[in-house]
Amino acid sequence: MSFDQILSVSGLRTYFYTYAGVVKAVDGIGLQVNKGETVGLVGESGSGKTVTAQSIMRVVPTPGKTVEGEIEFQGKNLLKLTESEMQHIRGKEIAYIPQDPTTTLDPVYSVGDQLAEVIMRHQPVSKKYAITKAIELLRNVGIADPQVRISQYPHELSGGTKQRIAIARALSCEPSLILADEPTTALDVTIQAQILELLTALKDKFNLAMVLITHDMGIVADTCDRVTVLYAGQVCETGTAEQVFGNPKHPYTEALLSSVPNLALRKKHLSVIPGNVPNLIQPPSGCRFHPRCSYARKVCIDKDPELESMGDGRIVHCHRWKELDLKSAVAS
Amino acid sequence: MNQEGTSQTAEPQSARPHGVSQWALAWRRLKKNKTAIAGLAIVGAFVVMAAFDRLVALYPPRCIVGLSPSCPSPDFVSNGPPTLTHPFGTNIDGYDVYSEIIYGTRAAFLIGLGATGLAILIAVIIGLAAGYFGGWMENLLMRVTEVFLVIPFFLLLLVFLQVALKFSQFSTGGIWIVVLVIGAFSWPGAARIIRGETLKVREFEFIAASRQIGASSWRILFRHLFPNVLHIVIVLLTLQIAASILTEAAVSFLGFGAPGSNTWGQQMYTSANFIADAWWATLFPALFVTVMVMGFNLLGNGLRDALDPRLRE
Amino acid sequence: MYLVPVFFGITLLVFTIERLAGDPVELYGALNPNITEQQRELLRKSLHLDQPIQVQYLSWLSDLLHLNLGSSFSGGSVATLIAQRIWATLELQLLGLTLSLMIAIPIGITSARKRYSALDVTITSTSLIGTSIPIFFLGVAAILIFGYHLHWFPSGGFQSTLPSQYPYGSLLLDQLWHLFLPATIYTFAILAPVVLLVRSSMLEVLRQDYILAAKASGLKDRTVIYKHGLRNALIPIVTYVGLYFGGLLAGAPVTETVFNWPGVGRMFVDYTTQLDFPVIQAIVVIITLMTLIANLITDVTYAYIDPRIRLE
What we know:
Radius of gyration of chain C: 24 Å
Helix content of chain C: over 70%
Number of strands of chain A: 12
Helix content of chain A: 25-40%
Oligomer: heterotrimer
Distance between the termini of chain C: 13 Å
Strand order of the largest sheet of chain A: 6-7-8-3-9-10-12-11
CATH architecture of the domain at 5-93 and 175-316 in chain A: 3-Layer(aba) Sandwich
Order of helices and strands of chain A: EEEHEEHEHHHHEHEHEEHHHEE
Shape of chain C: globular
CATH class of the domain at 5-93 and 175-316 in chain A: Alpha Beta
Number of helices of chain A: 11
Largest sheet of chain C: none
Strand content of chain A: 15-25%
Number of helices of chain C: 14
Structural class of chain A: alpha/beta
């Protein structure tokens, strides 16, 4: 693990053992995050983004289980820690901002209660101190009248406010890594921009590393240093934002980029990726994208490609990346 | 991203997924549900017992073993313990307990189905009306239901039965009185639940669509609303059968039942005084009540899991 | 509050049902032929039977509101009769409910946390079966075994008839000895549905996002499950238990008959057999009132647990 690296995930496999079969939600994912950088984790619903984050935090809900992989964080393999040791990492070293702000706060406790309990869990401080700190946190995330808000209940607050509180909770113990799961998806468009701005500002201010999970390429372009594209539980490619956006090496990335509505390009019609999201209980053979890939060849059906490194952190998961000359629809 | 872009018109029919009917789906889930299968097996066994009671029993009904001419057997034994000739022993009158229990099965079904039929009928009407029409009707119906729910109906049941059975002109009706009274008091709980479901279903778009194309309220109620609350009605029905049988057993056990009806509860009552010496005469009927109630309860719970549209895991 | 119209509705309903049956004195007289015509006249007067039905109802209602429960047909003040027995009923019911909750909640939580495990399956199936076992089966069987045959406990009653029978000469011990079996069996009898409810409520709650978020914040398991999980799960549990208690009270006649327990329920059976209407009416109203109070307590508790309700 290089000096700058704060998180390194490799070979992660998390399966869900359901009545219908084994759902291979995450099947061989790798991810690298360096200190202070924002890595975007992009993919459609079902690509395994959330499950990856949950696996890192080791809060995968039953019937899920991480069956294989290595998650190195600050020199420790998280998958080998005891539950008690893991509890000291969660919320304190790595924080998770869940997807839906409306359901992420316990409805029967006040805002102050919920923030304070996290603070008191990780630091030996009094409740009074914790509440004071909580009020300050609310102010930092841009909530007006924090002293009033602190004793209010979640149902009295708007979605945007709740998301800010969730962010405040995540930052409350000064973690070094934040996993933000679609922080803006559940919000109004006008609030989305504010929240993103807030996140970026806070990240810069405290020099945090962040994994930003999203399906919105626009957000990735705006905020991320590096990007990992996921499809059906596997990585398609990884690289810096410029590299992936300007010079995609995986057909799925190319397709994603060309399906982004962009008035400036004045396209005649939106391209669509044909086909359906694959069934993760019985994924397609070989490369999981092959049924929808316009460049698929026989080898793609037979064999699962390797994760090949192009050097300097650029990684591709495709048989034909060397031969394909993919065009980015959004290259400037 | 992937775009499948056909818009869908709201269909003025029950919300069925295309292709597989809801019932076929439910049946499949039911088969997988162990509770439901167990319940069904138990109920099935009792149905057989009731249908072929003469064949399954050892002696003719109500015959005093050893004394009546129609009762072939060894000797008259009163309160005799279980033996080979009397697997569950005999009671104070000399009847074979096992046979009497078998003959009581039909009565149990009668009570279960009769009282439940009445109760659920009332509950459906009130629940649907309250849920669909809303306004003052809902208010009135729900207040009435609440009053009924708070009143200890079991107590009133005892009073009513005592009056009706002991000496009014209905005393020959016996078991029908019991059926009627239990049914008349058992609807509030179910009505409340049905109303809840109606409120949910009412919000479905196809109801609004129906109204827009001019369907009358009654039509909507029966053709659209009712089929969609049917799943919960079935569950309630099954559970109510269990409850009715249980109630009758309790009522008879206390001595308020119809004397000639020969239900299991009645059998318990006649033998209760001798329980110290002849526990079998009371306990075996009680056991059968337990098992039959259990059967319907298991079936009802299994049905609830199988038919609940939310529980898709 | 809406309690007032409900109370009126109840009294009206009880009164109506009772009068539908016929002339109370006639009915009573039919079962107790040894009362004289003179006594019948007296009883009729006391119930105002010579006056129109509204007057009868209203006079009863006003009596109730003045806490006058009248006199039994067979003599004796109803209020006194009830007062003598009510403690026994309350003792058994409250003890049963409290113990049942204390046991059911941990079991239900464990079952929910270890869903699909062998333990969970055992608990769930046992509880499902348990919901169907009527008290007259469980109770009678237990009394037979532990009371009559093993003689570990008395086979019924509230306390021994002679002080010489008290264990170690202590009245308290004697009462506890008599209370043990009924309380234990009763607790087991009502345990099953509560366990199932706790389990299903916890399962529903543990699936929620805020539980995952709490866990992801590093909170201890115990904190997540009990502080966040249980409090939210209690909401439907409290509602159900409130209603259930009403049902339990109504079932007191059976319970008390099975255990030969001298409470208001057993009293009801005795007096209903005689069709002694003043007593019957009074007991019905009292039990209804207790149910109403239970509902009220439920509502208050509910509002305490769930801040979303408080605003209403």
